[in-house]
Every structure is written in C-alpha cells, then in structure tokens.
C-alpha cells in the first residue's frame, strides 16, 4: 500500500461536487486558506513542465459585482431556457443542475471570493493544432481540480464555471489581464453549508470504457 487511507482519498474524489446553493455567502473566507489551496495547485502536471498558470483572486466587492454582471450577460436566458427544456423532457437531474446554475448566476456577486484560473498563451503559433489546445487545457485543468479538492478538504466549495467567458474581454479589462493570458473559467469560492456531499449518480463505467479497441458504441 502507498500509505494513503483510501476511504479518505476516495471520499474526497467522489464527493467533490459543483457547489452552488450550498455556498455559505455570509461567511468570510480568510485569504490564507485561498493561498494554501493555491499553493497545492503548484504540484499539478503541465505540458513540458511549462507551469504557465496564473491565478487571479478577486475579493473586492465592486469587482465581484462587475464580474457577476458579466457572467449574467454571458448566461443570457440559456440557463432558464435549458431548465424549462429539461423539465419538459422529464430530465429531472438536468433540471436541477440548471436551477442550481441559475441560483449561482443570481447570487455570484455574494460569493466572498472569485478565482479566475488563467494560462499563458503568448507562445502559441497562429491557428494552433488540436495537440496544442489539448496541451493548454491539460496544463491548467488538473490544477483547477487540485484547487477544488483542496477547498473541499478544508470545508469550502466551488464550481468551475465558464459562462463569463462569452464576454471574457470585459473581465480582462476590469482586472487588467494582459494579451497573451487566457482565462479558462471563474470559480466562486465559499465555505459550504454542511459537508455531507454525496457521490453523483453516473452511468456505469462500462458504458464509456473501451479496452484495447473501440468496439460496440457508435461515436
Ligand atoms: C468545463 C466546465 C464548465 C462548466 N461551466 C459551468 C458554468 O458556467 N456554470 C455553472 O453553474 N456550472 C458549470 N459547470 C459545472 C457543471 O455543471 C457540473 O460540474 C456538472 O453539472 C456536474 O456536477 P458535479 O460537478 O457536482 O458532479 C461547468 C463544469 C465544467 C467541467
């Protein structure tokens, strides 16, 4: 055995959820906790060990309000329309996700901390091929997930969101993010209300697993 308590690590990996309605919007988050969790992200993998990640932490209330406006502008009617469609189609779980996402959109300004993960793209060739995009996302998303796991293990929660990126340039202007730095999301961060999160219901592994060759499922 590698010395890990699997009941703890497996619980962390299976119960780190997108938290929205259970973010405690009234409890302040000490800066040091954010620093500690971000410190852990520095151990995540990056292509060619480039470590092109950059993190923007926003606690300023006026800037959070402005980011929330940008987010809602990006969301438009997408969340409410999607909720209606999901409910009409009897897709209960999807309906809940959209309702929860709308709640976050309505309350984003009140999440005490916003974290915007970014990655340097100033070295990219024009029209980069798929391999380069895969390398870029693969060099920031593992760190984002490390951040979310680190938060969860300290009693905080977050959701990786991307809706503000429809107007990402407005967020860049607001925060002074230079050319050559690409935002990849926005995570509202807060303590969670309770910590009894459960594994999500997911289709079985065998529905998505191909061993040695792609067979059976049509793409
Ligand atoms: C790439 C990506 C983009 C996402 N964008 C948003 C978003 O803009 N707003 C939001 O509320 N949730 C967003 N989510 C959260 C997903 O809705 C959530 O992860 C999914 O419903 C599964 O829920 P779970 O993480 O609790 O298992 C995003 C997740 C990912 C991975």
Write a brief structural summary.
Helix content is 42%, strand content 11%. The protein has 219 residues and is an alpha+beta fold.
What is the CATH H-level superfamily of the domain at 20-74 and 110-194? NADH Oxidase
CATH class category name of the domain at 20-74 and 110-194? Alpha Beta
Shape descriptor: globular
**Ligand roster:** flavin mononucleotide
Low-pLDDT segments: none
The residue-averaged pLDDT reads 96
Classify the secondary structure makeup into a structural class.
alpha+beta
Q: CA-to-CA gap between the ends?
A: 38 Å
Oligomer: single chain
Task: Count up the helices.
Answer: 8
Give the SSE order as H and E letters.
Answer: HHEHHHEHHEHEE
**How many β-strand stretches?**
5
Specify the CATH architecture of the domain at 20-74 and 110-194: 3-Layer(aba) Sandwich
> What percent of residues are in strands?
5-15%
Helix content: 40-55%
CATH topology of the domain at 20-74 and 110-194: NADH Oxidase
C-alpha Rg, in Å?
19 Å
